[in-house]
Amino acid sequence: MEKKIEGSCLCGNVKISSDGEPQMTAVCHCKSCQKQTGTAFSIVVGVAEHSLQVEGVEFLGEFAGQGDSGSKVSRKFCKNCGSPVFSVLEAFPGAAFIKAGTLEDTSWLAPNMHMWCDASQPWISFPEDIPCFAKNPVSE
Ligand SMILES: [Zn+2]
Ligand SMILES: [Zn+2]
C-alpha cells in the first residue's frame, strides 16, 4: 500500500508533504498534546525531518515549549486557522512528527504504539497488539 504523505491545515494555507517512508505512527496521550489539540490525544507520523516539505511557511507559527518529558518541543501550527501541523522534538533528533489528521489520505494509517498512556483520559482503552508506553519509548 502506498503511504502518501500529503496534507494541509484546515484553511489550506500550510501544505506539507514528504516522500520519505513513515518511521512510526504513534498515538500520544501526553497532557501537552491534549492541550494543543484540544482533544484526547495526538496521532503523529514520524518522518525524516529533511524529507519534510512545507508550503506556506509564512503562515507557519511556532510554539516552543517543553514536552511532558521536560525536553524541548517545537510545535508548528497555522497562524490563520490554528491547526497543529507538525512538531520537532529534542528527544527525537532528525525527525518531524506530522499530525495525522492533516493528511489527505489516512487510509493506510495504523498506529504502531501508544505513548504517555499514564496521562491518558480515563475512558481510553488500549489495544493489546501494539506497545503502550507509560511515558515515551525513549525514557523507558
Ligand atoms: Zn491554516
Ligand atoms: Zn504528546
From TrEMBL:
What the entry lists under Gene3D superfamilies is as follows:
glutathione-dependent formaldehyde- activating enzyme (gfa)
Keyword check for Lyase: yes
Pfam families, from UniProt? GFA
GO molecular function terms attached to this record: carbon-sulfur lyase activity; metal ion binding
Top-rank taxon of the source lineage equals: Bacteria
Could you tell me the keywords of this UniProt record?
A: Lyase, Metal-binding, Zinc
Quick check: keyword Signal in the entry?
no
Residue ranges annotated for the CENP-V/GFA domain, each copy included: 5-109
The entry assigns this protein to a family as follows: Belongs to the Gfa family.
This chain belongs to the protein called CENP-V/GFA domain-containing protein
Organism (species): Teredinibacter turnerae (strain ATCC 39867 / T7901)
